[in-house]
Amino acid sequence: MEALAVTATLLSMKQTMCFIKTLRIASLDDPITKLSEESLERLWNPPPQPISIESAGTHYSIATYLALENASQNAYNHVCQAAHHSFADFPGVDEIQSFHNVEKLIVSYTGIVSVEHDMCRNTCIVYTGPFSQLEACPMCSASCWKEERLQGTCGQSKVAAQTFTTIPVGPQLQALYRNKDSAKDMDYLCRCTEEVLQQIQEAGSISIVDDVAMGWDYLGAVLDSNIKPNDIVLMVSLDGAQLYDSKESDCWIYIWIIVNLPPDKRYCKLHI
Question: What are phi and psi of 30, to 5 degrees?
Answer without folding.
Answer: -65, 125
